Structure prediction request, 546 residues.
Amino acid sequence: MKRVNLDNLTWACVTALMIVLFSTSIIQAGLPEWRQEEVDWRMTGGDRVKAIRYPEQTKPPLYEEQGGSLPTVLRKQITPIRSLTEDSSVGLLSNPTVVANVIESPPVDGFIPYIAVVATDERSDDFDWVAETHMSVVGNYLTDSPATDFTLGLFDTGASTHVLSYEAASRLGVYNAGLLTDHAIELIGATSSVYAWVSHPLAVFMDGLGAVDPNGLMVDDSNMVGQSNVSVLVGDEPFEGQADLPTVMGSPMSVNFVMTIDNSHPITVTYDGNDYTAPDIHFYGHGDARIPEYADSIPLGLIPSGAVNIQYIIDMEAIFEFVFEPGTPSIIVGNSAQSLFFVGSVDLYNGTRSAIDKTRFMLDTGAQVTVIGSSIGARLGLDPANPDFEVDIEDATGAITITPGFYLDTLEVPALGHWLTYTNVPVVLLDVGSPEGGTLDGIIGMNLFVNFNLVLRGGGLQGQDPPSLEYEIITSVLIGDIAPDGGDGVVDFLDLEALADAWGSTPDSPNWNPAADIAPQPVPDGVVNYLDLAAMMENWLKGTTP
Prediction:
């Protein structure tokens, strides 16, 4: 076994290993009067949040406990501090306003983009190291029962390469097919390390949970997309009590596809006795007519710039022995290092302090929480000794660090169309390594997008359009908003009049209006009566209209 010493590799090779994130956490004891809850949330780079602690009177909103309920969204004009400009005609400062969707108190944790994954033996010749994109499954499956020998993973733009857990690689047939090189990558944690193997070139394909039978027994590969001639990291068999590596399809899968995330239609499947819930996810080629178009768009950048393709790095030592095999897994490569998606600009405010126009916030679909680095925390005047809450972060080796969390007054994401403005925003203070060197300003996690349907348009390679994240707001159903024509966003006299017109009716009545039968929830009783009136009165004069 050839063990790769990370200290002797260039930064380009180090960042190619995806999971090695050099994190700086503040370790401190949780306060005894705080309440602790056990959780299991995804962080960047395979880390997980295993517990959260907070003062009893200030419990953070937890998305997983709310059953997917959405925070409040309003649309209004805002005056960003960043927009202060000098009006040359009058010599005064002017404050241009923008229209923003204001999301109040997003949850600490967000959704997980679970996907179904299969593998085949499709590869190119020994002298071609570049991945090839496919809009359907090609090659030969590695098992005799491909419809049942699939695995679940997640689509993770924060991972610089693809990873198969030991369990997943075994189920997909990667181990039995002899597709592992003798290169072992050491993944270093806080107190110990684990190893992952570099694979020979193969092919991986993916689709959303909609491709999986609800009982998790069969997978339909007819709409899968993927890449061939890629080398992936494969988890070694974990020691007893040690967690397996996660299965992820990383950023190399993102540049050549368009991913749609439909949070308004979540899908739940049972797999190996566990329930998995995720948005309805689909993958398309660029220009596909089935891709929804949303008016609002967040510009993204593939950073570092200059990326040209997706490929593995050949083992240069083995070439002299006429052995052609990968020395590293496949990554997005260019002028300096592998590339990841970054949000064009982020503004943060806390009290009288601000951090404006920050461009080193990575978009990480594999992270359920949002993170800010210590440089941003210092700029905002945060005190790690006095956090608003704490989380326990477990790395790939099982080591736990206690990390402070805070509520920021405001986090803004400028967009083409309507900006996004988040208030009372929970963030974790953590330094994460950047592909450009140093540390990130932060990570935009999926807790900020539980209200949205999204279109992640890949791109950024030479010759491609820049990537972007289009979005639409999911409007919460307001019980009692039934008129006109199904509702206008406000429960008012129009709704009361429609209820009165249908009073006492049943489905057989000439004045029956099914929209007026709103109680009891979630299954109305088929008659319009005082129960429906009471449900309407609970939301009287409430509305989501800006």
